[in-house]
Structure formats: structure tokens, C-alpha cells
Amino acid sequence: MQKIRLRYAKRGRLRFTSHRDVARAFERALRRAGVPMAYSQGFNPHPKISWIGAAPTGVASEAEYVEIQVVEALDPASLARVLDAALAPGLDVLEAVQAGPGGLAERMEASDWHIELPGVDPDTLSVAVERLLAEEHVEVERLTKDGRRLIDARPAVIRAEVTESGGDTPGVGIDMSYPERSCGILRVVVRQTTPAVRPDDVLSALRVVAALEPPVPAKATRTAQGRLDDEGGLSDPLALDRQAGLG
Predict the structure, then answer these.
(1) Which domain of life is it from (predicted)?
(2) Looking at 164-226, which runs of residues are DSSP E strands?
């Protein structure tokens, strides 16, 4: 069997798609594209697909990852093209590589988030972020299927800063739905903990420490996942696979 790792994006309206629906869309696309999938054994065989840290419903992402197993040798770049063509616009396959040694999940230590807050003045947002970073613990309330629970959001926040523009990240830019409003943009690196601290938890923490209340819903986009480096940045989780393929 051959293992192939893919990076894909979840954009536009499809950010509201649940992970279960994304998984179903990928399975249908793999069948339409004629990909020779490997299947599990037993009474209910299913394609061997491993999802890595899927983004929450309601957020966009430029850095989602999935690993598939196939029973015939395939060219990863060709697979990326045919699979992307079989998926709906907004679920976009960005890259495919043959899996090298080691697991992919163990390379995912943190996520880099770009969060737009229309109607929030950047200076006001900066003050709120400073107050958050000055705290050691900030408990926020999250509604789960088992009821409300408190989680400590602060330890997961590795780095946070306010920027003035969307930067050069593909697929990420200022939302012009509210052109008359100022727009604070928060870039935050969050460690992937258990339970996971999501962008809405970070915003809840800003509400706790600084009473920050955005007048309209924020728009969050995950721009990267990977291992943390010494400066709080993230390494590319597929870099080791590319190097193994060149060896």
C-alpha cells in the first residue's frame, strides 16, 4: 500500500460545513476520481482515511490535512489535481506528497489563526490582547453536548499580536462586508491541547479580561499547523515527507 498526505483548504461558505460532511464529500470525490483506495477488513469495510486535527465548524482554513492509503502506486501531484477537480469549490486540494517515515499527527503541535473582528478598533483590540497575555490563567465557558464547562484558555496561547492588514496569506483577506467599520485583525498561535482551545475560546478570553464584545461575528481562518519552533513560529508538517521523497 501507498500512503499519501494531502493539505487542503476550507474556504468561503464551506467554512460552515461540519467535519462529518467534509469527510463524506472527500469519500464521494475519491470514488468519482477513481482513486484505488485501500479498505479496512470486517463486515463494514471503509476507505482508509486518517483525518488530522480538523478545524471546527464555522471557521475557514488554509491548512487542513488528511492521509489516505491506496492499493496502487500513484503520482501525488496527479492525485491532487483529479481530486481537487472532483471536490466542490471551497474544498480545495493544495498539495499531495507521499508519506515519509513517522506519523503526521505528531507534527501538529499548534495552529496559527488569523481572526478578523469587524467593528473592533485595532487599538482597542491591542489593549485587550495585552491584558490577556499578562494573565497566567483565564477561564472561559464553553457549551458542549454534555452541558456547560469551564476551560482555561490562556496556557494554550503561545503568541498573539494585532496586525493592520490581511498579509500575503493565500485565501485570507479583509472581509469587505462591513466597509464602513474599522477591523481589528488578531494573529494568534494556539497550542493544540486537550480539550482544544478554539478561536472562539480566545475571543471569550478577551471578553473576560477586557470586556471586548465585537458588534458582528468574527471570521477566523487557520493559516498553518505544525511544530513550534524557538520563536513561536510553525514548521511545515509535510517538509519531512518531501525530503524523504527526494532522497
Answers:
(1) Bacteria
(2) 183-191, 219-226
